[in-house]
Amino acid sequence: MEILNIKTASKDYSVVVGKNLIQRDNFEESKNREVFLTVDENIPENLKQKVIRILEEEASKFSMLEIKATEENKSYSSLEVIHDSLINAGYSRNCILYALGGGIICDMTGFAAATYQRGVDFVLIPSTLLSQVDASVGGKTAINHKIGKNMIGAFHQPTKVISDVNFLMTLEPKEIRGGLAEIVKHAIILDKKFFDWLEHNIEGLLACDEGLYEYAVSKSIKLKESVVSRDETEKGIRKWLNFGHTFGHAIEIYGQYKQFSHGEAVALGMMMAINLSIKTSGLDIKSATRIKELVKNILNEELIEKQFNPEELYKMMSSDKKKIGEVLNFITVKDIGHAEIIKDIDSETILKSITL
Ligand code: GLY
Does ligand 1 come within 6 angstroms of the Cβ of 232? Predict the structure, then answer.
């Protein structure tokens, strides 16, 4: 077990990473507190019951809400249900919310905590690889709006994060691949040595080796911390974490949020961002090939052969309603481990990058 300290301008907290973490010792924040748990209804029953038992015993008051974790349910109405449950049961400002689930449950519970009585504490127990290495660290909380994903939200840091790698052993390969895309992203933009390690261990990671995940999750969180500790609210270098995302968001829209998972879209987007990096940031061909080979490893074959119509994808990039009033900016790498922000790229260069 490892305890990582996350420092941000607004709050410091710890992320516990390891195996078998669903034990009373890791739940001290719930002791004699009014506790409300939101849980993804797909969490395996034994793990869910373990968390519930501990919270019931530790808390002075306990209730919970099971939610089907879909993008449609990451909504105003689900938020209202959470707030109504808290108000109807008389939860005070001293209460603490727990979230057990993936990014949807973590983001929405975080936003419910950010807004209930102007902000209460919350603890995250991320259950997917993607949420363990991304959503649970850095305090981005949100719900969706019909105009776009995560349009309504706040920066609100958790009190603690419990990242138990046992949860990962229950995931479908598609979910593992989606999380690996974000881990690989952290290496590409921030850490060449970790990139080498991933190249070396990709087979074991795809085979879901628990020991490898303890290291990969912890390393990935440390890398994300090195960014959010310097830029909590994404005024500058936190934008690096959007590597592959400008293309990736357009790919998600292109597939109407059904054809590609977020992780798959980001992986495909990273391939395009590498093409762009060669043109705009002087990334050498040898490094570009290494990066693309590693990313290809985490995509299934059908996706690698996918072809996108550049004009159509570009249109989706520029019409992404979240980008209205903003210039399109891209994150590129000049070398493995060194990201940069690029603005004002001509459309021809972008169009030429839209290939795998
Ligand atoms: N997912 C990117 C960030 O947390 O900033």
Answer: no
Residues 253-258, mean pLDDT to the nearest whole number: 88
Q: Among 95, 171, 90, which residue's Cα sits nearest to residue 126? A: 171
Rounded distance from Cα 88 to ligand 1 centre (Å): 33
Q: Read off the pTM.
A: 0.95
Asked if pLDDT for residue 319 goes beyond 80, the answer is no
Q: Rounded to 10 degrees, what is the CA torsion of 62, 59, 55, 157?
A: 90
Q: Ligand 1 within 6 A of 138 CB?
A: yes
How does pLDDT run across 14-23, given as a tens digit for each residue? 999 999 999 9
Q: Answer yes or no: is the C-beta of 241 below 6 A from any ligand 1 atom.
A: yes
In order, the DSSP letters of 203-261 are HHHHTT-HHHHHHHHHHHHHHHHHHHTT-TTSSSGGGGGGTTHHHHHHHHHHTTTTSS-
SS3 329: coil
pLDDT, residue 318, reads 76
Of 354, 337, 188, nearest to 279 (Cα)? 354
Residue 279 CB less than 6 A away from ligand 1: no
What is the atom index within ligand 1 of the atom nearest the CA of 138? 4
What pLDDT shows up at residue 280? 96
The 10s digit of each residue's pLDDT in 183-208 is 999 999 999 999 999 999 999 999 99
Ligand 1 and 134: CB distance under 6 A: yes
- Boundaries of every domain in the chain: 2-170, 173-353
Domain boundaries 2-170, corresponding CATH code: 3.40.50.1970
Count CB atoms within 10 A of the CB of residue 265: 26
Question: Which residues are registered as beta bridge partners of 12?
Answer: 7
pLDDT at 325 over 80: no
Please provide the CATH number assigned to the domain covering 173-353.
1.20.1090.10
- Average pLDDT across the chain, whole number: 95
Interatomic CA distance for residues 50 and 228, integer angstroms: 32
Task: Give the pLDDT of residue 322.
Answer: 60
